Amino acid sequence: MPAEPAILVSVATQISGNAAILLVEDDRDTQKSMKSVLEMAGYDVTVTSGADEAMNRLRSGLRPHVILLDLMMPGKTGFQFRCEQMQDPRFAEIPLVVYSGHHDIMANAAQLGANAYFQKPVDIDALLKVIEKHCPKPVPEGSSPSR
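RESULT FIELD:
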């Protein structure tokens, strides 16, 4: 049954017309704060606690406009997630934004072919500007997407 929520999220995103973001983050406090900020900006956010869960969501039909990926997680790391993502043509073209507390984030992001990178703590205004480059403009609540 784990595939069901991903399918529902994907369908809900298609109906609302809002930009979808997949947030891959193991820290609950960071999950909550980033999800809250992104949703206030009008984005639909799917949160996963790790790389395996994120890949399962993608394989179950979730199609985000961008993936926000923490690199340092217990179990499968962000590096391993990116390797799996790039090996599957259905997911390889999804833009990736990485963030980490690791001291060499710039080199790590370049190695992964990330579209952007951020050092923790993340500058939210800068993050939102990067997301705007990869996602359609969010649809305000109560509005229907323009055609």
